[in-house]
Amino acid sequence: FHIGEREEKCIIEDIPRDTLVVGNYKVQRWQIHTHDFLESAPGLGMFVTVSSPSGEVLLSKLYGPQGTFSFTSYLSGEHIICFQSNSTRFAVIAGSKLRIHLDIRVGEHFLDESAIKAKDKVNEVNVRLEHLIEQIHHVTREQDYEREREEKFRRTSEETNSNILWWAIVQTLILISVGIWQIKSLRDFFISKKLV
Known about the structure:
alpha+beta; 2 domains; five-stranded antiparallel sheet; four-stranded antiparallel sheet; 2 helices; endoplasmic reticulum; transmembrane; membrane; transmembrane helix
């Protein structure tokens, strides 16, 4: 994605609790002379801020033009990940664009292949088995989180349907009472004018 040099851009990630999130990014600066983005942006860094669904800041750190950040969520919900450059140029001068390449991985723990190759076959199987068990735990947490979200959505839908039913009943009663009042008023009017 692209942002201005002094602009803040935020991304919302829906993350289950107790989940590791790893993000890799790379910043490129727009070069006016070549009309292209430079391969790297030396001297330019990024402030990365991560907020939990309750608004608590989980991570706030300055990184270089490319880097890796990670955090573990302790609450389920929408986590806000914000990026802002550390540019100190004035707003009038700092008009160049930045391109950010971002890769966010939720719940993944990567195997170190070189460490696995160095160990014997029994240890390799053991490490892979532990990795699979960890992935199973992540899938279970993800399913529990989706189940919680579905239950919350169902409750909200049932409350809305109940409110709509009561509102329809109230509208019907108002309509009937206004109709009866109009009939009575017209009847009294015709009787007073001796038309009936």
